[in-house]
Amino acid sequence: MLRVVSSDRLLESLRKAVAADPDDVHLRVHYAQLLDEAGERDEAIRQAAAVLQREPTNAAALALIAQTREISPRAESGPADRQPEGAPRSDDEVLGRLDDELRDVAPPMFAESGAEPEPSAPYDLERTGLRLADVGGMRQVKQRLEASILAPLRNPELGRLYKKSVRGGMLLYGPPGCGKTFIARAVAGELDARFLPVSLADVLDMFIGQSERNVHELFEYARRNAPCVVFLDEVDAIGQKRSQRRHSATRGSVNQLLAEMDGVATDNAGVFVLGATNHPWDVDVALRRPGRFDRMLLVLPPDRDAREAILRYHLRDRPIANVDLKKLAKGSEGYSGADLAYVCDVAAERALLDSAANDAVRMIEMHDLLAALAEVRPSTGPWFETARNVAQFANEGGAYDELAAYLRQRRLM
Amino acid sequence: MTEADPGRVIAHVATLVDLGRYQQAIRQLASILATDPHNSHALCLLARARLGVNDNKGAETAAAAAIAADPDNEWALRIASLALQRMDFTSASVRMARRAVGIAPTIGETHARLAMALAADNSNLDEARHAADRAVELNPHAVDAYLAVGAVALADRRPRDAQQAIAHALAIDPTSAAAHNELARTHLHRRRFVGGAMLGRAAAGFGTALRSDPNEQVSRRNLDVVLHVFLGRLAYYVFIVAFIGSRIAAGTNVQHAALYLPTAALALPAFFVTRFLARLSPQLRQYLWRSFRAPLRGLAGAALAAACLLLPVGALVPHNASGMFLLPLVLSIAARIALYKERARAGLTKRQRSRRS
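^ Those are the sequences you sent over. The predicted structure of the assembly is below.
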């Protein structure tokens, strides 16, 4: 059956499709071309730039940009022989100008010979711009963060009065996919500090002494860029119990981390270290002593409010109809944030397949999400199996009391 | 790290395996093996990582591929042997271990593996003993060598020797969860009168193994087995006492005082329970108490408690003593059945257990 779809509706449908699958380059190119035809040149360029960001050599996108930018000045400034000052005069100039405009979206494809490459920063440093308010739900986690880090930093006078120091670091632990990284970014945003994420691959090296050097360089870099939140993801791998390590090449990384966190030879002022781990019990005990990761914060699977917020976020740009988020949030107890994102993906996939089979686009509906929820099981189960052992047999000094209380509350122990 | 540098990727993966990051290692190995599917070392690392995530079949397949690529790779043979042993193919496991020893007779690990495989196969224990001794000789500071000696001694029904060997292993590495687990297993093999203390020690040992390494789910299952054995034996003792009571009550010209005999005999299960509980840490006692939340185990516990309370009643109601002793008898049998059902449900029967421990 031939369907006559108005240009606006088609563009709107394509916009939603692109939002649902932002990495589909062909779809995006097609969308950009239609935008161009509809006269929405700026948006067409934006979409073409997004294509180049994913596929820097995409010929269609390059052609579209070149064509659009060639047309644009003429359309705005009259005949070609009356170019305004500063307008590009040759193909090279056009491409040069394009390069300037797209520098922030796509890296240059070729380096100019003879030009010295700019020394690249060893780690990615960013201003997250996130706040704890951007974290949905998780009231208790926010309260703990406020009390242990944020309040003393915001009120240095009170901190001095109560002799409350914010020296050292905090260890975020909990099941995978529950937002530890997001919370760390929000903390950096709250402190108005730079965020320096560090993963296992950034630090560990097979060569003897290189891992230690990497750790040292990381802290030096953080000190140079203070105020800065160093976020050590998978800190159990970097700071694993030394008794568990067999490879001598990586054993020294814990010692180096201890030395850097103590700041014996240097000043760590303005450097706050946040660690995240799924296995806090594998972290060397020396790292959990005062002045190091002396505060531990349990980040559990999202509560109902947080689940609702997460579902809303993942469905925000998708075509949905009659979705009862409260009901979904209620039925997804124990799901991690990553699980919920996957639930939304599965529901979208169901609707997409259905649309393709019936040759008619339909919205993602409640039954898609409920079916997806039934299909996707919480991925946190194995973590809680081990956590139960910890809470029952290895809770010396009450380090895992919070975890034990949660397990008892959920009758997992 | 780039794709063009496979040596570096493999070294990184070895580090990941060392750190117990098995899933990450498996993901990274996929790229190496896609371009070089016959890389024996990468296949070995894949097999080792799969063993780490309890994918024994996958580990065996990867190890077999590594052996096909390099028939003299003793590490691949050892991994294949362990994977086969875990899957209960003990004869094949022994064959692989023997090949490894043939290729690398000066490496202690190959002898330790052979000893373990033979002990699991429960065959040719003389050869197993010789292999374990050779492993210790070649590598006197390796925990695994002493664990092999212990495993052989245990298979040979010499629990005292096994304990000594494992004590050596613990002297080398006091935090070794595997050694704590094995030591606890030896307590289960030492049969003593009533046996409450040994069971208690075994439970405490598994608890220690769990404290050393909470990821060790085998120790947790073993602990559950001990608790089941404890309750099962308790039900058995209560049954005996109730049976004696019912026989006494059924006799003719029974003296009233004789009816108190079963009550006195309750000292036997009481002694057993006391000896068991005395060895447990407060956490373990709490764990035992909480374990009664499982419906069938709770039912068994309630039935046993009721049986113990009813036994003295038989003496107080002499005219109907026979009937009064019959009830605890039935309750103890019911407890035993409930425990068996719970054990099967939890996958803790002997057959299921032998594959894991």
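Residues 217-250 of chain B form the longest helix (34 residues). Chain B has a mean pLDDT of 87.

Shout if you want it in another format.
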